[in-house]
Amino acid sequence: MPDTAWIETVVARWELPLIQYVQRILGQAHDARDVVQDTFLRLCREDRDQLEPRLVAWLFTVCRNLAIDRLRKERPMHVPAPTELDEPAAPPHSPAAGLERQEAASDLLGALATLTPNQQECIRLKFQQGLSYQQISALTGLSVGNVGYLIHVGLRALRAHLAADAASHDLVTPGAQP
Amino acid sequence: MIADPADDTRLTAYILGELTGEERADVERLIARDAAVRREVQRLRALALDLRRQLRHEAVAAPGLSADQRATIATAAAPRRALRWPRLAAAGAGLAAAGLVLGLTLAPRGADTGAVPLAAPAQPSRDAISGMPVSPTAAPSIVLARVAPAAPESPRQQVDGVLTDLVEPIARGEIEANIVESGDEDAVKGREEAVATSAEGMTGPGAAQGAFTAIDPRRGARASGGRLRALAPPAAQGGMFGYRGGTPATAAVASGRHGVPPTDLRLPLVAGEDPGALPPVGPGGETYNRRADNPFLGVAQEPLSTFSLDVDAASYSNLRRFLAENTLPPRDAVRIEELINYFPYHYQPPEDGAPFAIRAEVVPCPWAPQHQLACIGLKAREFSAVARPPANLVFLVDVSGSMAPANRLPLIKTGLSLLANALDARDRVALVTYADGSRIVLPPTPGSDRRAILQAIDGLAAAGGTNGGEGIRSAYALAAQGRIAAGSNRVILCTDGDFNVGVTSREELVALIQEQARSRVFLSVMGVGEGNFKDATMELLADRGNGHYAYLDGIDETRKVFLEQMSGTLTTVAKDVKVQVEFNPARIAGYRLIGYEKRVMAAADFRDDRKDAGDLGAGHTVTALYELVPRQAATGAPEGLRYQQAPPPAAVVDVSHGDELMAVKLRYKAPDSDTSQLLVGTIGDAQVRGRASGDFAFAAAVAAAGMLLRAEATAPRAAWDDAIARADAARGDDPLGYRAEFVALLRKAAAIATRPGRE
């Protein structure tokens, strides 16, 4: 029997993070909201007491699997490995928000777009969604050590990128001070 | 030694709060001894902060589920179709996401059934907006569900007036991340050093003790004492109108809140509040509930001022933390009563077994010479260590990843160890941790088994997510298990406040805590950390749990709270303490309560024993200040009322109490009682002084400084200099250096606030 109040709060809390996460896996051609809706429908069938301790990892894992399934159906010839996801089709920032965005913001997000897909995924899960290494490991299938390494290397690459940018634009960026 | 610290994955894990135990200690040692590592950590932190901010910002662009999708989920979530699940109605496109959270998770207050106050930009409802850092301009054009109340029998409806506080400040896509945000070791090190203590001895003569007499409410009659009048029967709402010759018709004025326009009376440098303004979100998503200053009120219109006692002092250490980072705190993080009540005052304890003693003085108002300042000080009975009742404590410790930095869990561990060392065989201690799930680390254990307790505390390590609700449930279960009937039963929650509300609604949490408080298990909240610190949440939890809330910003504060104050906190001498002041219109034209904004109560609630209020622990002191506009200082008749005759006809005023300025009434319950008792006393010419005595002079100086801090850098340098000079002059007996530290903090605040180039 579903716990209505609980599901309400879970939806309210995780709807947007999940949509955003899935949109990045699917790219612009798909509507991430279908996947997230599916995930919440599955949530309604779960037992709250059992699920609650691992709720966050569960939500992201289900979303991720459903999204990959969807891609797989579309393109049976190309089955992405769990950690080998599409390059994000979404631009790093929407045109509408573009004007308000700081120069430095697009620099950093632009730099992020140059990282490998699994570096990007781990960094987003960590910094955007606030998941722990352990949660990221549970949902990507990577080891905790591997997650830590990917994030570490990703951050290094970001810094190098920003430092190069700063040198060419003669700008000082936050991550690149001596 | 590592060739290039940038190659060390541990540093990345460290700043992300992912290291625990030995690994963490190793990295901290490395940081301490290697400057290159320190620089690297700083660079990493800067990048992490930047990434987090920008990625969160990016999150705002995502569109939400459609109305149809919501309806489908709703149907699947409803145990019985159609009946239970509320109808989903499409709301306007500009509706903030906030409305969704509110509508989905909160039941409306009783009277509002069917009309949840959603935050609609066109007609901002202050209730719905306060506490919600959602900018209407950032709201994406999506359809949001407005939800009719769920099951009307829901016990949530009894949570009265909590709605705004409950609203979790989750903006669209704003995620609580367990990321360490700023240099924690720097924050610990960088604290303002306390200026050397200078004991100047006691200042001033002991102020006159007001004439207070205990009154048994059941008798409904007063004890002896020439100043006291007969009490109204308990059924009369809103207290007594002693200065009005008992005219019952005058009781009606208590319901309306007609403030005297502030322009003529108010401190000019306190900026007015824009009711439509959104509450500020501090750095890293810290949230504070918006609070306007109490306005000046005319005695003719509002003869009664009622508030709940508050001994919390978290605002002070939070202020100290902001100043250590060279910033002024946001206005709403400055709670003047908490600043005042942070300091120990040397009020005389009660004799003859009364729960507390009161003293009062009326002195010239330091910041408005034509006004007076009424200072009211309470001192609770002290218990010696031997006489204190046994304690049954459950430590509930957040060990999620965000607790890893040195100024969080390690600080809590120090505090708990200090406290554990002060317990003995009469006491019981249990320890519960929560992260992704909750875990009982130590079942209820006698306080004499110090080794087991300290070992359990020592073994705490931070990792994982945060599920506060589950932990609280197990903690209360343990408290019930180890219950000491004649003792003090308390859960001590230690956290950075980063509850995951996706799992347990804040409302349920509060309902649980309230219910437990009724069964006399109280809650203390120890807050730590910066960045994602949820001041409003923690304060709310402590308030509802008849509790006490402290913010630990360093080892000194930890020692103060756990060692010096905990014995008091553990021993509640009076609970639900309410103060009601009635002003004599023959002497006072207007008044303003300084601070206690969130504690102001309706006059009728004073007598309502079901209404919760603050508690007083052994030895605690509480100080409240009123700024008074004396009758002769008021400029003639129109006291600011535009549409009616303001001053009461002279005939109504009972002139037989011409030597009295105000009557102070206190209601409190004994810790084990549900029926309140009443204390009444008067403050009159006997308490008027030419200048404030030591303690009150200092309290007044703190109040003045608090007003400057709430003015957010709009005050002129001269006002700061004056406040500093007054605080410095009033330091008095300060054996622990708290007051000297305050003066140093003020100097720093003044420097920041009046920095050239600042807006």
- Beta-strand portion of chain B reads 15-25%
Number of helices of chain B: 19
Rg over CA atoms of chain B: 26 Å
Unreliable stretches of chain A, pLDDT < 50, 5 or more residues?
Answer: 76-105, 170-178
Helix content of chain B: 25-40%
Q: Treating each run of at least 4 consecutive H or I residues as one helix, how many helices of chain A?
A: 9
Average pLDDT of chain B, rounded to a whole number, is 68
Q: Structural class of the helices, strands and pairings of chain B?
A: alpha+beta
Order of secondary-structure elements of chain A? HHHHHHHHH
Kindly report the oligomeric state of this protein.
Answer: heterodimer
Gross morphology of chain A is: elongated
Low-confidence stretches of chain B: 80-242, 244-284, 635-639, 646-652
What share of the residues of chain A does DSSP label as strand, in percent?
A: under 5%
Identify the biggest protein-protein contact and residues per side: A-B, 66 and 68 residues
Q: Outline the biggest β-sheet of chain B.
A: 6 strands, antiparallel
Form type of chain B? globular
Q: First CA to last CA of chain B: what distance?
A: 47 Å
State the end-to-end distance of chain A: 58 Å
